[in-house]
Amino acid sequence: MRDPVGRKAVGRDPVDRKFFAALLLISIVAGSVRPVSAYTPDDPKVRSMVESAKGYLAANEHRLPGGKALQALVFVKDEEYDHPIVVSAVKAAEEFAAQTDAKLTSQATSYEITLIIIFLAELNADRHRATIEKLMDVMWKRQKEHGGFGYSGKADGDTSMSQYIVLAAWSAYKNGIDLDWDAIGKLNDWFLRTQDPSGAWGYQGQLASGGGRVKQTEVRLSLAAGGLGSVYVCADLMGVGQRLKNVKIERKIPAAFRPVESGDASGEEVKRSRAKGLSPTVLQEMKRALNDGNQYFADKFAVPGGKHDFYYLYAVERYKSFFAQIDGGDEVNPRWYDRGVDWLAEKQVASGGWTQAGSEGPIANTAFACLFLLRSTQKSIKASLGEGLLTGGRGLPKDTSKIRMRRGKIVSQPLSASPDEIMSIMEDPDNPDFTALADNPETVISSLDPQNRAGSLQRLRRLIQSGNAESRRLAVKALSHHRDLDNVPVLIYALADEDAEVFVAARNALRFISRKFDGFDIPQYPTAEEQQEGVLKWKTWYQSIRPGAQFLQ
Question: Which among 32, 81, 174, 412 would be 20 to 30 A from 440, CA to CA?
C-alpha cells in the first residue's frame, strides 16, 4: 500500500511492525540507561546519598571541636546554615578559640585549628572574623623553620597536615582575611622540596637539599592528591596561575628556592605575590611539580585509593577543582567523579553513613564523602565570583557594565565588532577588548564576514602558526567552534605547540570535529615523545579520510 505521496505506508508490513517495535524498545532502554560520565551533585542518586548521610551526621555528633567543624561544613556546603549541627559547631569553635595562645600553639596537631578556620570562613567570615584571625595567628606560629607544618615536638613537616594549612589560608583569604605572604611562600617551597621523584608526595616530608628531589616515605595516592592540590592552591594564592601556563621548563633547573625582588608582576598579582615577584626558578619548579604530579595521578589514579579512602576522595575533589580552574581541565561530568560516586554508593550503609572500620572514624568518613559528593571545593571556587582568585590572571573585565556569569565565573559579554576588527584584536592581547574575545571565543567564528569567510578562516589559521601564546590559544579555541575538516591540519600543527593550553585546546578541538572523543588517549601532560606520537596518530586518521592530505611543518 502507498501513502498519498507515493511512499510505502509505514507500519503496514509485518516486517515493518517488528522493526519499529524493536526501535521503540531500544529507545526506551536507551532512555533508562545512564550514559557514561553522567553524575553531577544534583543527580537524584547523589542527592539521595547526601540526604541519607546528613541524617546520619545529624544523629551522631563528633566529640572534638575540629570534628564538629568538619561535620558542620557539610551542612554549610548544602546551604543549611542554621542546622543544629552548625549551631553546635560554632559554639564548640568559639570555646576552643577562647583558650590562650600558648595552649593553642602547643596543640599536638594543626587539624583542629585549620578545620575550624575553614568552617567559620565558609559559614560567615565577617561575623566570625575575630575568631578566625586569632586562629590564623596561632596557625602561622606553628610553622616550622623549613616551611612545613607537622606534629608538635617533631622536626619533619607533615604533608597531610600542611595541605589543610593551605586550604585554611585559601578559605580565609577568599573571604577577606589577609595572609602572611612570607609564610605562604615558605610553605609553597616546602611542598616543592618534598615531592617524590615519581611526582607524588609522602607522609613526613624528607627535604631535598642542593637541588633535585629525594625519595619520600609512605608515598600514596591520598598524599599525592593532597600535595598536588596544595601546589595549585599556592599558585592561586600567589597570583601566578596564569604565568605558570607560559613558563618553559629548562633541562637543568637551578637548585635555589628563593623569592626575589622583581618588577614583572602588577596589580592584583603583586598583592598576592608576597608583595614581590617570584624568581624564575620557583616558577619553573612549580610548573615542573604540577606537570609531574598530574602525570603521576593520571597513571596511578584509582578508586578506592588504598588507604584513608574517604579523606582521599575529598583531596581528589579539591585537587581536580583547582586543576580545572587553573589548567583548564574538563569539569563536565568528569570520570573521576563518576567512579567516586559509584564506589561510595556501594559502601554507604543503611544508617546513611560510611562506618567502615579504620580511617578517620565514621563521622569524619561520612563528612569527607559528602564533601566529595557535593563538589564542595568547586562550590567555594564558584562562590569567589571573580574576586581576584581563579580568573585566569585577568581579573574583572575592564568594563564592568558588560559582564555576566558563566559556570561560576564573571566573564565579559560577547564583543560586537567587524571581522577585521575582531582579527586585529586577536593579534594584540594588550588590546582592552581581548578579554571579551577570550571569554567568548565562539564570537570569532560567528562574526566572520560571509562574503570572505574562507579568507578570514585562513587568517585565523595563520595566527595559530605565528601568533603569541595568548593569541594562539584564542585562535585554537575559536576554531573548535567551527566543525570543519579543513581546520584539522592546523589543529594537528597546534598539537605540537610548546604551550600546554594551546595543546589541550587543539586536542579538544580535534575530538569535537572528528567525533573521536577518546582522542587516541593522549595524556593531559604528555612527554615530548607522547606529544609527537599523538601528532602522528591524528595525521594517520586524517589521511584515512582525506588521502594525500598535506600538513604544516
Answer: 174
Domain shared by 472 and 358, yes or no = no
Cα end-to-end distance, the chain, whole Å: 60
Distance, CA of 456 to CA of 463 (rounded, Å):
11
Which of 185, 154, 398, 146 is CA-nearest to residue 283? 185
Residues 453, 519, single domain; the answer is yes
Could you report the per-residue pLDDT of 436-489, keeping only the tens digit for each?
666 666 666 666 656 666 766 777 777 777 777 777 887 787 777 666 788 888
- Do 271 and 406 fall within a single domain? no
Distance, in Å, from the CA atom of 297 to the CA atom of 307, rounded to the nearest integer, reads 16
d(CA 293, CA 217) in angstroms, rounded, equals 16
Amino acid at 532: Q
Give the C-alpha separation, 460 to 474, whole Å.
10
User: What does the pLDDT look like over 41-62, one tens digit per residue?
Assistant: 888 999 999 999 999 999 999 9
**Whole-model pTM over 0.85:** no
Cα dihedral 420, 422, 425, 429, rounded to 10, equals -140
Rg from Cα positions in the chain: 26
DSSP states along 12-61 = -SHHHHHHHHHHHHHHHHHHHSPPSS---TTSHHHHHHHHHHHHHHHHS-
Tally of domains in the chain: 5
The domain containing residue 227 runs over which residues? 179-300
Residue 419 CA from chain centroid, whole number:
34
Question: Is the same domain home to 281 and 190?
Answer: yes
DSSP for 135-165, written as a single string: HHHHHHHT--TTS----TT-SSEEHHHHHHH
Distance of CA 514 to the CA centre of its chain: 26
